[in-house]
Amino acid sequence: MTRVLVINSGSSSLKLQILDTAVEGELAWALVERIGEPVGTLTVRRSDLAGAGAEERTAEAEFPDHTAALGHVLELAKELHVHPTDVGVEAIGHRVVHGGPAFHEPVEVTPEVEADIEKLEVLAPLHNPANLRGIRVARDLLPGLPHVAVFDTGFFHTLPAAAHTYAIDRETARGWDLRRYGFHGTSHEFVSRRTADVLGRPYGELNQIVLHLGNGASASAIEGGRAMDTSMGLTPLEGLVMGTRPGDLDPGLIIHLIRDRGMSPEDVSTLLNRRSGLEGLSGARDFRELLTRVDDGDEDATLAYDVVIHRLRRYIGGYWAVLGDVDAITFTAGVGENVARLRADALSTMRGWGVEIETEANENGAGERVISTPDSRVTVLVVPTDEELAIARACDEVLGLGG
Question: Which of 69, 246, 288, 392 could hold 63 in an S-S bridge, CB 3.0 to 4.6 Å?
Answer without folding.
Answer: 69
